[in-house]
Predict the structure.
Amino acid sequence: MKFIDLARGYERYGGEIEEAVVRVLRSTRYILGPEVAALEEELARFVGVSRAVGVSSGTDALLLILKALELPPGSKVITPSFTFVATAEAIRRAGLVPHFVDIDPRTYNLSPEAVEEALRRHPGEISAVIAVSLFGLPADFEALERLSREYGVVLVEDACQSFGAEFAGRRSGSFGRAAATSFFPAKPLGGAGDGGMVFTGDEVLAERVRALRMHGQTRNYYYEYAGINGRLDEIQAAILRVRFRHFEEELRLRERVAGKYRRALADIPGLVLPHVPPGYRSSWAQFTVRVPGRDELRARLSERGIPTMVYYPHPLHLQPIFRDLGFGEGSLPETEKAAREVLSLPMHPYLTDEEIALVAETIREFYR
């Protein structure tokens, strides 16, 4: 059993993918050609925004958004500590300062109450909020959009794990001033390498991101911004267009797997299943449970050949690279507790009933 079985996906769509790759190779248009343009148009329509800009990775999508926003240098950006390092890394690379706040223990996303407390305690210091839609579940954007308006800060969605998810009838990627997603192979919509996209309804911001991904160039060899080489390759775009044709079916298959896990793991004392509040649709990037004694359970699953992952064992506020920010142990209690207890089980659209049953029975045996 594999944690994420990319080979099964290739078995399904490999022929289509190879045709698309060969088409690009024969075209000799390898950078920012018709495949990227078509993918941008298709995904913008799917998300429900007017602009999408293909870039080199989800990390670069976040960085380019922050650079395009032209926030005050050295200002603080609220973000969770319970996330992949790229979120806070992009803040630092943009010349800004990460300001970590705690999470909602049920969803693992930013706690709106914690965000509001930080905004009240640091008036004038905070310029933006980056809300991560973790494990495929959107953050509480109803509350976060209200807070961003009330306190005059910019809201950005880190949708790198949640493409295809929904909240209140809107798709992940449509929230805030702009959103970033990732096409890393293990994501819900994954390519065959790195890639990402910026979504926004702000035409000026989109054009600035387009310039920034090309070294800041606004016309041939004329540079208005300090940009990066952040372009999406044509081959990746062509592969993603194939995968996107099957994306709705894959979302339904992910929901099927999550539903089977829920039924098979119900009523195990102490085991907390993923929480999807009313009005939300998760894209199920991960199926993450939480339990005291996580490491012992993980060892038992490993003995049975069942791979698991821990996202994330070391919160960012306790990492050496962010030690200078002054967050000590105990400063974000819900984040630190989640880091000790979460465990992600094998999750992909092609898990069989037998594999799900093996995972569930092994967990039940452990608790018996």
Q: What stands out?
A: The mean pLDDT is 97. The radius of gyration is 21 Å. The chain is about 40% helix and 15% strand. The CA atoms of residues 10 and 368 lie 38 Å apart.
